Amino acid sequence: MVKIVAAVFVAGAVASDQWEQYKKDFQKTYMSDAEEADRKAIFTETLDRIEKLNAKGNAVFGLTWTSDRKPEEKHAKGYKKPAGFVPNAPIYEKKQEVRSPAGINWRFTEAITPIKNQGQCGSCWAFSATSAIESQLALVGGEEYSIELAPQQITSCTPSSGTYGCDGCNGGFTEGAYEYLETVAGLANSFYIPYEQSLTASSLTKICPTKKVEAMSGPDAALSGGFAAVTGYTYATPPCTSGACSSQDLTKLQQALEETPVSICVNAGAWNDYTGGVMTSAQCGSMAADEQDHCVQATGFNTTAPTPYWIVRNSWASGWGEKGYIYLEMSENTCGLADDATIPTVSLNLSPEEEMKAAASRDRMYSVATMTYQHQITV
Q1: The domain 75-148+231-375: what is its CATH number?
Q2: 187-199 burial string, b = 16+ CB within 10 Å, else e?
Q3: What residue segments make up the domains of the chain, in order of their start?
Q4: Helix 174-181, helix 124-141: angle, nearest 10
Q5: CA 140 to each of CA 298, 346, 355: distance values in angstroms, whole numbers, following the listed order
Q6: Among 124, 157, 169, 208, which one carries the catalytic annotation?
Q7: Which of 65, 90, 199, 309 has the most CB atoms in a 10 Å sphere around its CB?
Q8: Annotated catalytic, 124?
Q9: pLDDT, tens digit, for every residue of 107-119?
């Protein structure tokens, strides 16, 4: 009995020491002793959860600024698809022969814009769709078309009713975003329609700037700046809308990533504790369709690392994970990343000369994307 009491005392002392260091590292202060006691209890639970998660695979979990926060105070997500949704978009058809590179990382090309932050709004679906549209715009038109677009437009303006209805900061899905954009001139640039949702607290969805959207196809359209005309979308690999989704066609996803980054939706239940490295499928948990809660963007893969991985871009700011990215075990449908993988179609009226220039730009970006991963530190 004495030994058990002593062990509990030592464990408590260690936790207290870690708690004091944690407060210092993350500049934590609390309004009262009662609040600090509550936060410390959450922190202690986090330590236990991190230990158990790391025991399932690679040591990729650790303390973050969310380690003392309640679930509703952590990074927002927002994936919400209508019950009974039936996907009817076609499957993506490759434009070139399969090249099977050992790895590709579009992150270091103009096809990928800087990391964004959705804040405390459940607009991940809008950010995921926006990122995919940005990538397509740059790949279709060439690097000169690499511009940052407006997730606020999708968040605020996508209708809340109908088959593809979405609910702003209360959640939505990428197919709904694309369907909305087909009804307007396109997705505006982020200077014309900036992101206005709070980054630190929950907030009501901003009202759609209808007049600005309408002006994009009016007599003063040139004053609104660049935008992306979306005419549809395809699935990178056949979607899974029910069940365990354990048999997704990952080869098709890999082949699609040879040509373009892809919007994906995942089960991000364990992601708040992620600090870096390759998260295994066992650590992420269920890949089932019903467990999906967050939409992001797949930007490449690396088959040469000790644990081959998918490269995934998040919308939780650059201070999270691998400077805004996460690496997911490649041999599995880890986190369900292939359940709902989409590629928007962006239309540009290019002249034959412009198309030749764009093709040369795509080849250059592909060359950069397939070379740079070799110079990364393998995980």
Answers
A1: 3.90.70.10
A2: bbbbebbebebee
A3: 2-61, 75-148+231-375
A4: 60
A5: 18, 7, 8
A6: 124
A7: 309
A8: yes
A9: 999 999 999 999 9
